[in-house]
Write a structure and sequence with these properties.
InterPro entries: BamE-like, Beta-lactamas_inhib, BLIP_dom_sf
Shape: flat
CATH architecture of the largest domain: 2-Layer Sandwich
Distance between the termini: 40 Å
Pfam family, one: BLIP
Keywords: Signal
Number of domains: 6
Length: 494
């Protein structure tokens, strides 16, 4: 339960981070000091936060109504335009807060200290070992459910970071990025292939002659639910890496990048020929090679293997196949779109309706497009197929059509609609959750760019985009569900 709670708040913090780096570089009106940020407490009302800081901040996102309404407000640091504080309110009450760059103190941690830290340690134990309390980058909840994410700079690295997650004052997870470059333990392909899921962590350590670097750890120390992720570097190249995931000290999954230097190619014709439900041997017979095992997990009927091929004729393309219990369940092609010959215009895209058959789409467009992804039993009502077409006017334009059981379930377009649809910051702020599409259109003065559509009736979802007046990259995204505004999100406001 605590681990799931922490995962949610880590997601919130990562979302905040994404907001920060998508914003326009123009000066932001609403500023905050580090002292003001630390003064703000979880549980405060939005009005209390506004009074403490002296302004209402920029509205980044809003969804829901009443007690379930979620609102995200952003401020920029008073000392640096790169520093940002974000506050998340639920029902007008502060649920969580996060900051980047407001606390300018440098808190460092060594690899030895990071390795020594154990889950269940208190904040005081960590502080005593490391010599500093670290930077509170995110806080949520109070008392026994208080979640705090603390960050340190990884000593001896340029960009290395260590994140520690505390729930109720005790560590439930630790995570690092950057220390991996100092790994002394090496691994070759033969050793990697020898190691099997179900091995103990001690067996892996004995075979490889070292324990590797702990990248992440969560759960009670020594419990059957403790999750530990360990990394090794390839013996032939420092650019290769192997990752092992242990649950309760038992190897649950393994993955490798660059360790297998074999070149396994698959043509687009082979990719489209392969059918969901085929065995690994059937795929190998068609392609002519077994592919690269990039990841393995589980055993027996729950064994999952991800196999990768290089997309023939593409510079960076890949074909990824997922096998469960020895049978193909999902195939995804990236890069084959370079060979797309089927074109689509905005008028054709707009003509296609949710509920059309795949044959109707193919007939209208004069071709079946390029298969990007497919999963589910061949021909079943649950099979999901994603097909891509390129724009008839611009090579940078494209459309993605998603079929479920051969019926159009959703469609998405980028750059097919070249119209310019503007919105002001004041209009964005005035929009109310629950407004109909017609109300929004009438208020703004245009219908916006319909980026994607899915579903029908009360479950129909439509995503509409606008460009923000007076900004370079400012964008507003509105999501309608069942014809009513459900979520609004804005980036790039001055």
């Amino acid at each position: 339960m605590l681990e799931r709670m922490l995962s949610f708040y880590i997601f919130v913090f990562v979302s905040f981070t994404a907001v920060v780096f998508q914003c326009d570089s123009a000066p932001i009106v609403y500023t905050i000091t580090y002292q003001q940020y630390t003064t703000v407490q979880i549980g405060w009302t939005q009005q209390q936060v506004t009074q403490n800081i002296g302004s209402a901040g920029n509205l980044v996102s809003q969804s829901g109504t009443g007690n379930t309404a979620i609102t995200i407000i952003k401020y920029t640091g008073s000392q640096s335009p790169l520093a940002v504080a974000t506050f998340l309110f639920q029902g007008g009450i502060l649920l969580s807060k996060a900051q980047i760059g407001l606390d300018t103190t440098v808190y460092t941690i060594t690899l030895a200290q990071y390795t020594a830290i154990q889950t269940d340690w208190t904040r005081d134990q960590v502080t005593k070992l490391v010599g500093s309390a670290g930077c509170n980058v995110s806080e949520a909840g109070t008392g026994n459910i208080a979640v705090i994410i603390v960050q340190y700079k990884a000593a001896g690295t340029t960009f290395g970071i260590v994140s520690l997650g505390f729930v109720g004052g005790k560590i439930v997870s630790k995570f690092e990025v950057g220390f991996a470059s100092t790994i002394n333990n090496k691994i070759n392909l033969l050793q990697y292939n020898t190691i099997q899921t179900g091995w103990t962590q001690q067996q892996v350590t004995t075979l490889l002659g070292g324990s590797g670097t702990i990248v992440s750890q969560s759960g009670t120390q020594g419990s059957p639910y403790q999750i530990t992720i360990v990394q090794y570097v390839g013996s032939q190249s420092s650019l290769t890496a192997v990752t092992f995931l242990f649950q309760g000290g038992i190897l649950s999954s393994k993955g490798q990048i660059g360790l297998d230097t074999g070149i396994y190619t698959m043509t687009y014709q082979q990719f489209t020929t392969i059918e969901i439900g085929w065995t690994r041997d059937q795929v190998t017979n068609v392609v002519g090679s077994a592919g690269c095992n990039v990841s393995e997990a589980g055993s027996g009927s729950t064994a999952v293997i991800i196999v990768q091929f290089t997309a023939a004729g593409a510079t960076f393309g890949n074909a990824d196949l997922t096998f469960i219990n020895g049978k193909l369940t999902t195939k995804t092609g990236i890069g084959y779109f370079l060979a797309i010959s089927n074109k689509i215009t905005l008028q054709q895209y707009s003509t296609i309706q949710i509920g059309w058959t795949q044959q109707q789409v193919t007939t209208l467009l004069g071709g079946s497009g390029t298969l990007i992804s497919q999963s589910g039993v061949q021909g079943s009502q649950y099979q999901i197929t994603m097909v891509q077409y390129s724009g008839a006017v611009s090579s940078s334009a494209l459309a993605l059509i998603t079929f479920q059981g051969g019926i159009v379930y959703g469609k998405t377009q980028a750059n097919l609609d070249t119209g310019v649809y503007m919105i002001t910051q004041q209009q964005y702020t005035s929009l109310q959750i629950g407004w109909t599409r017609d109300q929004v259109t009438q208020f703004i003065g245009n219908a916006g760019n319909v980026a994607s559509e899915a579903g029908t009736g009360n479950v129909a979802a439509v995503s509409v985009q606008y460009k923000v007046v007076g900004t370079v990259i400012g964008t507003v995204n509105l999501i309608f569900s069942g014809g009513k505004l459900y979520i609004k999100t804005g980036f790039g406001f001055k």
